[in-house]
Amino acid sequence: MSHRDNDAIAVIHFYATAPYACSYLDDHQARSQVAAPAEAVDANVYSQLIGLGFRRSGHFTYRPYCDVCRACVSVRIPAEKFVPDRSQTRALRRHGNLSTRILPLAFVDEHFQLYRRYQRARHDGGGMSEDDPAQYAEFILKSHVESWLVEFREQGVLRMVSLIDRLDDGLSAVYTFFDPDLPRTSYGVYNVLWQVDLARQLKLSYVYLGYWIAQSPKMAYKTRYQPLERLDDGRWSTFLR
Asked: What is the number of other CB atoms lying within 10 angstroms of the CB of residue 234?
């Protein structure tokens, strides 16, 4: 892949990682295909790569490249066509009092403390629950594209933070963390619905949700957002649950 910018040509290369333990399926080995050099993946190139099933983690742009398994399926919501179901409508009502603020990527200790609480409650022992500020910054605050942090507050109290990338044709939901201690909340659902509404306001076509994995409860929920589209063999098509 080549990209021309100010009469210079940046050539993107791809390499495969060594196998590593899969984060989603027990007893599975995973590999990734990574785009390099990282600094050459600007907003335009990144938008193209997202359409081909890539994601971003910090400065690294990657997609699953496993030897046998094909469980990871890229999915996106067509913003104008999306219609919330009853439970999603309830989530909108339940958290409609949240105020939002879109911020540039910068370290805020209040965000970091919420991130630590979320990781320890939801992903204890998963490798990120003991992240220090430097590791948090590498994951959340490093980006070569247009990225935002969105605060969600309830009467001034921080409840949720979402990392979002803006693409040529949509928004990419990179990562979200929220207060894990409050009962009967639907922060994650509300966040997706909020991003769909933001995409509509910005006249963008899609919200990219990353990977759907049928065998992983952490990822299987994404089919609840309908209509949904999935990427198979380089083509996007309707994905009905």
From this structure: 8
The CATH number of the domain covering residues in 75-239:
3.40.630.30
Q: Do the Cβ atoms of 163 and 174 come closer than 8 Å?
A: yes
- The pTM of the full predicted model, rounded to 2 decimals, is 0.92
Element (H, E) at 193: helix 187-201
DSSP 30: E
pLDDT per position in the chain (241 positions), as tens? 544 443 333 589 999 999 999 988 989 999 999 999 999 999 999 999 999 999 999 999 999 999 999 999 999 999 999 999 999 999 999 999 999 999 999 999 999 999 999 999 987 665 665 689 999 999 999 999 999 999 999 999 999 999 999 999 999 999 999 999 999 899 999 999 999 999 999 999 999 999 999 998 888 899 999 999 999 999 999 997 7
Strand partners, 84: none
3-state secondary structure 133-161: HHHHHHHHHCCCCCEEEEEEEECCEEEEE
Give 210's DSSP letter: E
Ramachandran quadrant class, 113 (left: phi over 0; alpha: psi -120 to 50; beta: rest): alpha
Distance CA 54, CA 62 (A): 5
Cα gap 79→75, rounded to integer Å: 13
* Helix ranges (DSSP H) in 32-83: 43-50
* 3 Cβ contact partners less than 8 Å away, ≥ 6 residues apart: 9, 10, 12, 40, 42, 44, 45
Domain ranges of the chain: 2-70, 75-239
